[in-house]
Amino acid sequence: MPDAPSPPEIGPPVFDAAFRARLGDLFAWRRDVRRFRADPVDEASLRACLALAALAPSVGNSQPWRFVRVSDPARRDAVTNDFERCNAQARDGYADERRALYASLKLAGLREAPVHLAVFCDGATEAGHGLGRATMPEMLRYSAVAAVHAFWLAARAHGLGVGWVSILEPARIARLLDVPEAWDLVAYLCVGHPQEEHADPELVRHGWQARTPDAARLHER
């Protein structure tokens, strides 16, 4: 009886120059979006982006990210109100021309975005058994941030825009969303179809902060 054929060898995919160029486009066109169309987000696309986000690296394979979709209108309004309060306080921390420039910026699309996602880090997770966290416990939060970035790139590839809203009081948002006490807010994301597309970041375009010329500089020691 002849031997059974050997299973084909499965190796890693080959990423050619054309793919690398397109990947560069993806990174370059990943923008912080604040202006959204009212069109609903396709549920399958959203789920696909979340599945890709779950491939992000995490310390000890702990996967501590917790994505919460905020759909309740009252809770969304409460989050928006918290942003407006915190934004006013932040604006008042500047003076003169910088304060006027800050006031002119659109810093969130909370009222327009069809999808709100709050991303938490589960500080009580037992997954990973603490590996890699004894000396750097903050790695758990960094892992959740990696998932946010992965989601952001995936969303861009699916034609969706993402805006990261950081002008919020984390503990208040956690209370508003009634999440477990051990969950710490890492990001509050607005998701939807962008109203407009720009190759440059909005804060560059409106004169708040230019790109740092040597941001990719490699320091040697």
TrEMBL record:
GO molecular function, one term: 5,6-dimethylbenzimidazole synthase activity
Domain Nitroreductase: 28-193
Enzyme Commission number: 1.13.11.79
Pfam families: Nitroreductase
Keyword Nucleus: no
Root EC class: oxidoreductase
Keywords tagged on the record: Oxidoreductase
Protein name: 5,6-dimethylbenzimidazole synthase
